[in-house]
């Protein structure tokens, strides 16, 4: 996958606006009764959120360049969900003044960039054309709750024990980090649960890397040269390295066959698979009936609280999420207020939510009105 959803920073998410599905937003050059131009009109929260707004457009752009993440976990989102999330996450901060919105000219520049992303050269983590749409007013070293509140492109450090975080300047390359948000270059390389990473710039074509997430957009990290490159146009029988993004995995119907180190096509439902004849598409929760027909079979569908496992062919009903799709988990409701386990990294909560310390799913920052 190109990068985890959690690598998409709040400051970038905030830097998007759009029409809320009501009145049409005037073009930047439209005149107004008071003689001002449309481009100088300040944006409102309705310009920021909406089913047809640029918050939704932002996510569409992000997953256009990294949609494998959704495919791998069988996830999806609706525009109405994004609209609700936008209002929940950002409207209170605009209302209390800790976040101020730019103008329609700023919005137009942001939308133009989003609509013309080059997935091989642009990275949603580092685009700067949207910075003026949303600006924080909280000074560095003052209390905060989300990144967007911090002025001068700061980030909100919530790692302390207090109920509020602290606005901090982003860290330079080679600094220790735990999240992409902390870094000037918007990449915290080598970070994992319980282990810190190192800040670096997102790598361009030909630059050094250790994993795909180090590279800009859809570029992949060549596992041999450890350099970012445009992914090959993979085909059956191409040489590959197992357990990498070779063969375009997981965004294609190809995988790297460990027995031959060449790209192969997944066997389809009803195709022979027993004895290693074929490999069923486990990404689709299809499994081989080794002791029966010897053919690839369609997944079983599990209800709420039922078992789920990508490699055993146990798939959750539509609208449910598998808490541990790779190792085996339980089908859960991924919506706000649902139960999750904060002690482990799982997929119980929807893609716009996270598991909070009280073991319930909620938005990353639930507004308190006290920070600052």
**How many strand elements?**
21
Give a quick account of the main beta sheet: strands, pairing sense, barrel closure. 3 strands, antiparallel
Q: Numbering strands along the chain, what is their spatial order in the largest sheet?
A: 3-5-4
Q: What share of the residues lie within helices? A: 10-25%
Distance between the termini: 37 Å
Outline: globular
Strand content: 15-25%
Give the number of helices: 6
Q: Helix-strand pattern, N to C?
A: HHHHHEHEEEEEEEEEEEEEEEEEEEE
Radius of gyration: 22 Å
Oligomer: single chain
| Uncertain regions spanning at least 5 consecutive residues | 1-37
- The structure class reads alpha+beta
Question: What's the mean pLDDT score?
Answer: 84
Give the SSE layout.
Layout: H1 10-14, H2 45-48, H3 54-64, H4 68-73, H5 79-96, E1 99-101, H6 104-115, E2 134-136, E3 143-144, E4 155-157, E5 165-168, E6 176-177, E7 186-189, E8 197-201, E9 220-221, E10 228-229, E11 254-257, E12 262-265, E13 287-288, E14 296-297, E15 300-302, E16 307-308, E17 314-316, E18 321-322, E19 329-332, E20 353-355, E21 361-363
Parallel strand pairs: 15-17
Antiparallel strand pairs: 1-2, 3-5, 4-5, 6-8, 7-8, 9-10, 11-12, 13-14, 16-19, 18-19, 20-21
């Amino acid at each position: 996958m190109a990068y985890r959803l959690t690598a998409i920073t709040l400051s970038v998410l905030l830097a998007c606006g759009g029409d809320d599905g009501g009145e049409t937003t005037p073009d930047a050059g439209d005149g107004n009764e008071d003689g001002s131009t449309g481009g100088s009109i300040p944006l409102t929260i309705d310009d920021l959120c909406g089913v047809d707004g640029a918050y939704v457009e932002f996510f569409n752009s992000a997953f256009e360049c990294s949609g494998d993440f959704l495919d791998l976990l069988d996830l999806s989102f609706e525009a109405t969900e994004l609209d609700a999330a936008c209002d929940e996450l950002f409207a209170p901060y605009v209302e209390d003044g800790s976040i101020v919105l730019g103008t329609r000219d700023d919005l137009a520049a942001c939308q133009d960039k989003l609509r013309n992303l080059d997935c091989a050269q642009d990275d949603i983590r580092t685009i700067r054309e949207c910075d003026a749409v949303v600006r924080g007013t909280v000074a560095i070293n003052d209390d905060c709750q989300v990144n967007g509140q911090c002025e001068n492109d700061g980030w909100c450090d919530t790692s302390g024990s207090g109920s509020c975080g602290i606005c901090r300047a982003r860290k330079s390359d080679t600094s220790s980090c735990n999240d992409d948000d902390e870094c000037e270059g918007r990449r915290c390389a080598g970070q994992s649960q319980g282990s810190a990473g190192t800040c670096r710039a997102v790598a361009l074509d030909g630059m050094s890397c250790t994993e795909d997430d180090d590279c800009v957009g859809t570029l992949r990290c060549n596992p041999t040269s450890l350099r970012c490159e445009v992914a090959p146009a993979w085909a059956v029988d191409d040489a590959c390295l197992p357990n990498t993004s070779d063969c375009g995995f997981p965004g294609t119907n190809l995988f790297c066959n460990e027995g031959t180190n060449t790209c192969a096509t997944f066997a389809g439902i009803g195709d022979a698979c027993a004895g290693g004849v074929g490999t069923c598409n486990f990404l689709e929760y299809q499994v081989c009936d080794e002791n029966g027909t010897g053919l690839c079979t369609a997944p079983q569908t599990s209800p709420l609280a039922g078992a789920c496992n990508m490699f055993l062919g146990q798939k959750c009903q539509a609208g449910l999420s598998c808490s541990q799709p790779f190792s085996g988990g339980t089908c859960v409701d991924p919506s706000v207020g649902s139960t999750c386990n904060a002690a482990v990294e799982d997929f119980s909560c929807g893609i716009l939510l996270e598991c909070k310390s009280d073991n319930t799913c909620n938005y990353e920052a639930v507004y308190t009105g006290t920070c600052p």
